[in-house]
Design brief:
alpha+beta, Aminopeptidase, 5 strands, 24% strand, globular
Length: 160
């Protein structure tokens, strides 16, 4: 199987969404995805893209992706956050994820960022071990904090 890693283009939006939905099923949250294909096109390929994406392609089919965006660390400076690294189930175990991971790290390094970061579910032992083996630090002392749109509105309403 020959795999090509390339920058995603607007016409990849449907394949990107399909990978996101597959990941949601894997992460036991199949109904959590609210973005639509149009959102991916607008947010990733518009005038001011909110993310970048590398895709893995084999025989003209997108089989994986690494979606990331810039952040700024007050301690380290420019950072890239890897939101998702996904390989479709039928192509796992063939080196596609490793190729995407390496391509993302190469992109980050040549872009001059000082740090890359991402989160991994603590129960995803395969991923945790993969990242540790690559030299990445899996931090235990940090908890992820999130607030959805409904909670933001509720908070803002209470603070008036």
């Amino acid at each position: 199987m020959k795999v090509q890693i390339r920058q995603a283009i607007k016409s990849d939006a449907a394949a990107i969404l399909a990978l996101i939905q597959e990941l949601a099923v894997f992460e036991k949250e199949p109904d959590a995805v609210v973005v639509k294909e149009e959102d991916i096109k607008a947010h990733g390929f518009g005038v001011n893209p909110l993310f970048q994406c590398l895709v893995a392609e084999s025989d003209g089919q997108v089989i994986g992706m690494a979606l990331f965006y810039p952040r700024y660390s007050t301690w380290k400076g420019p950072t890239l956050h890897l939101e998702d690294l996904i390989v479709t189930e039928s192509h796992k175990g063939r080196g596609v994820g490793t190729a995407l991971y390496k391509a993302f790290i190469e992109h980050a390094y040549t872009s001059g960022v000082n740090r890359i970061e991402w989160v991994v579910l603590d129960w995803n032992n395969t991923a945790v071990q993969f990242y540790k083996k690559s030299g990445a630090q899996v931090l235990q002392e940090w908890d992820t904090v999130q607030m959805d749109r409904e909670t933001m509105a509720h908070y803002l309403k209470k603070k008036k």
